[in-house]
Specification:
With 441 residues, the chain is α/β, with parallel strands linked by helices. Among the domains are: 2-58; 125-144 and 154-334, Rossmann fold (3-Layer(aba) Sandwich). It contains 11 helices and 19 strands. Strands 1, 2, 3, 8, 9, 10, 11, 12, 13 and 17 form a 10-stranded mixed beta sheet that branches. Strands 6-5-4-16-18-19 form a 6-stranded parallel beta sheet, with helices on both faces. Helix 2 (107-114) links the parallel strand 4 (86-89) and strand 5. It starts with a strand and ends in a 25-residue tail after the last helix. This is High light inducible protein. InterPro entries: DUF3326. Pfam families: DUF3326 (PF11805).
Length: 441
């Protein structure tokens, strides 16, 4: 089984109308029958069309656990539940986001937004900081593809007290590294109360290679995914979530250059990790997260004091505790819609989506279709070049703000039912039209 990335341009459709349906049809035309779409993003919209990048799973033989839904399947929510205010915070992996694009440096943003939310639904890239994970108590740690399915209306998530977390690790040539991973699991059992029923060492390894797409996004290629799938099938009754720690093939100079202030490169590990966990969550309907295992002791270079956003990586050996803590209480994935039950969330329960400005993937497109308010943050600069205001959002459903402090104000305005313009000055005159001004088709 092979996971890789594909680039193509889809022609523009007039006024971007029915965009989600149109893109779905056009993308599926690009694929062969044995290819399964895993992760989709539009990096730029210009006169040439929609510049798309797609993670694709290629399986030459029948899958033991075929996905029950396509990532493009969509069910419109029939109502909005206003009993709670639930926020989805996304900072997509591998786009070089100024905030949240390094090593858990979106964690403070998560804590800020959670203070104004009943539940904050976010993904590993936001809060994973190697051996640090400071997500708030009301945060739901949900893998990115599951958030997509939630917003697309094809899955529900259920809060849990705890999960049985299986850890799958590479059997490293230097025993120090896989022994350190076992020690990380033991430490989480002792300090966190984690239920880790087993650790599986993989003799047959999946091969994960970090690459960059034409847009500059961190992506990758994964070979021999079936080796991991065999393990997940074999022990399926013994775990509820899976943590994975394996080696990622990254050019040696990338490891060093990434920490240097005068070289601006996108975190090389996150993109291929996202491809892996998207595939696993899609195939098995389980929470999953990955941490990169070091290739050798040579990686522990004396780099001195580094950019604070990257510093967590230099004080961790296994980069694993953040994953174990996140998966400990990660919501259960329900591959259907269950409405009106306490502790179960669907698209109807989502009050707003917060993203960096310019990001257009399936979550943004789903929010556009579902009428979920989208708050886009300009200060969180990134590689994506889309102009969100050109998309056909319903009036009052797209808000573009400067920073995350403004996001909190908008969230509270939405929750209070206060039109944002009503607390700004000057206040425009009320629009009045005579009946004769109305035009009919």
């Amino acid at each position: 089984m092979l996971l890789n990335e594909r680039n193509f341009v889809i022609p523009l459709i007039n006024n971007h109308s029915n965009l989600l349906k149109y893109l779905s049809e056009m993308v599926l035309k690009e694929l062969d029958s044995e290819e399964i779409p895993v992760r989709f993003v539009i990096t730029n919209i210009d006169n040439q069309g929609y510049h798309c990048e797609l993670g694709v799973l290629n399986s030459e033989k029948k899958l033991v656990s075929p996905p029950k839904n396509s990532i493009f399947d969509y069910n419109i929510r029939s109502y909005e539940n206003t009993d709670q205010f639930n926020t989805v915070l996304l900072i997509p992996t591998g786009i070089g986001a100024e905030i949240g694009g390094h090593s858990g440096d979106g964690g403070a943003v998560a804590r800020l937004l959670a203070a104004s939310s009943d539940s904050l639904i976010t993904h590993p890239n936001v809060v994973n900081a190697s051996d640090i994970n400071e997500m708030p108590e009301n945060a739901l740690y949900v893998e990115g593809s599951v958030i997509t399915r939630l917003l697309m209306g094809t899955a529900s998530i259920q809060k849990v007290y705890s999960n049985r977390v299986m850890l799958v690790i590479d059997e490293h040539e230097e025993s120090y590294f896989h022994e350190a991973a076992v020690n990380s699991a033991s430490a989480a059992r002792a300090a966190l109360g984690l239920n880790c029923p087993l650790v599986v060492r993989m003799g047959k390894k999946i091969l994960m290679q970090s690459l960059y797409s034409s847009s500059g996004r961190a992506v990758g290629q994964i070979k021999y995914l079936e080796y991991l799938c065999e393990i997940l099938e074999k022990y399926r009754s013994q775990y509820d979530a899976v943590a994975i720690s394996t080696i990622i093939d990254v050019p040696p100079d990338f490891c060093n250059d990434y920490f240097l202030d005068d070289i601006n490169i996108v975190n090389p590990w996150g993109g291929v990790e996202a491809m892996l966990t998207h595939a696993i969550s899609m195939l098995f309907d389980i929470p999953s997260a990955h941490s990169p295992m070091m290739t050798s002791m040579e990686y522990e270079l004396d780099l001195g004091v580094v950019d604070p956003r990257k510093s967590a990586e230099l004080i961790s050996i296994t980069n694993l505790h953040c994953v174990l803590k996140g998966l400990h209480r990660s919501p259960r994935i329900i591959n259907s819609l269950i409405y009106g039950h306490s502790g179960i969330l669907t698209a109807a329960d989502i009050s707003c989506l917060v993203i960096p400005y310019g990001c257009v993937g399936l979550p943004t497109l789903a929010a556009l279709e579902q009428g979920i308010p989208v708050i886009a943050v300009k200060e969180n600069k990134n590689l994506m070049q889309n102009k969100l205001e050109e998309l056909p959002f319903t009036s009052g459903k797209l808000f573009i703000v400067e920073n995350y402090l403004e996001v909190v104000g908008l969230m509270n305005a939405l929750k209070a039912g206060v039109a944002p313009e009503s607390v700004r000055r000057p206040l425009a005159y009320t629009t009045v039209k005579a009946q004769g001004d109305l035009k009919t088709d």
